[in-house]
Give the backbone structure.
Amino acid sequence: MKKSIFSGIKDKLVKDEKSDLANAMTEINEYEKKEKRKKCENEISSSDKTRGVIQSARKDVREMISHVIEPEEKTLKNYVSFSFWKKKRKLYVDLKMKEHQDLNIYSVLYDSARPTIEYYILTVLSCIIATTGLIQGSGATIIGAMIVAPLMTPILAFSLGVIWGDTGLMKTSLSSLLKGVVLAVFISSVISFLVPFANYTPEIISRTKPTLFDIIVALTSGFVGAYGYANKRISSSLVGIAIAVALMPPLCTVGIGIGTLNYSVATGAAVLFLINLISISLAGAIVFWAMKIHPIHAHSNEVKKRAIYQIIFSVIILIIISIPVGIYMYDGYLLATSQEKVRISVESQLPDTEIIQFKTVKISNGYRLDLTLTGDTVPSAVTIDLIKKNIYESSKVIKNVHLRYMPSTKF
C-alpha cells in the first residue's frame, strides 16, 4: 500500500518536472525566436537607414547639380575636378542655410498674419488706446497704441505671399487685415459716438490732412520694417518702425469721423491710412525681392514677374493718391505763403494797428480772407484799398477780402 502511494507521488513529481522542463524549453525557444526576429528587424532598420542616407545624399547631389551648377559648367573637366565640387558644395550649403532662414521668415509672418484670438485682442486694445489718446490729444497714449497695434504684419505677409506666389498666404493676410480694419473702425466709431467731446484735438486734425511727406515716411518705414523681418540682427528696432508707420491712429480717426458724422475727417484719415498701407506693401515687395526671400527652387523669372506686378500696381495707386494730395499740399503752401505776406503788408502799412482776427474761408474759386484790425487811429479808405490791392497782387489763392476795423479805447 505504501509502495503504491510513494510510486504515485514519484510519478506525479516526474510528470511535473517533465512539464516544467517542457515549459522552460518552450519559453527558451520563444525567447530565441524573438531575439532572432529583433535582430532581423534591426538589420532591416539599419539597412533602411543606410538606404535612406544614400537616397538623401543622392537627392542632395541632384539638387546641387540643378541649383548651383550652370548648364555650361556641366563638363567632364569640371566633373573630375575636386576644387569644382568643393566650391559648388559650399555654395549649395549656403543656399540651404538661406532657404532655412527664408522658411523661418515665412513661418513668422504666416503665424503673425493669421486672425488668431491674440490678433483680435491686440487690435481691440490698441484701438481703444488710440481712440482715447486722439480724443484727449495725448501723444504719449497714441504712441502706446502704435506699439501694440498688429496691423503691419499682415501687410508684409501679403507682400511675401506675392513674392512666393502663395495665394493661401495672400488670402490669409488680406482676411486678417480686413477684419482688423473693420473692427478698429467700428470700435472707434462707437467710442466717439458715446463719449462727448467739444472739438477735434490737433492730434485728430493732423491725421486728416495727409501730405507727400507722409508717403515718404511710410515708404521709408516700410523698407525698414520688411528689412527688420528679413534680417533678425535688427529686429529689435521694429518697435520704432511701428511708431513711424502709424497705422492704427489714422484708422481710429476714420472711426471718429464716422462716429461724429464728419465725413471730411473720415475721408482725410482714410487717405492717410491708404497711403501707409500701400507704401508698406510696396516696400515689402521690393525688399523681399531684392533680398531673394523665396524658395530656392522657384524660377527667378517668375519671382521677378510677380514682384514687378505688385510694384507697378502699388506705384500706380500711390501716384493716383499722390496727385490730389500734392495738389492739396501745394494749395496749403500757397495759402500759408499768402497769409504771411498779408501780415507783413498790414504791419508795414499800419504799424500802430493790431490784427485780432485772421481767418481764411474756402470759396468756389479760392479763399476769402476775414481780417479784423484794431488800433487808436482809423485808417483812411485809400489805405484800406491799398492794403486790399497788395493782398490780391501778392496772393494767388485769396480772391476776396473782408476787412473790419475796431477802434480801441483807452481808459
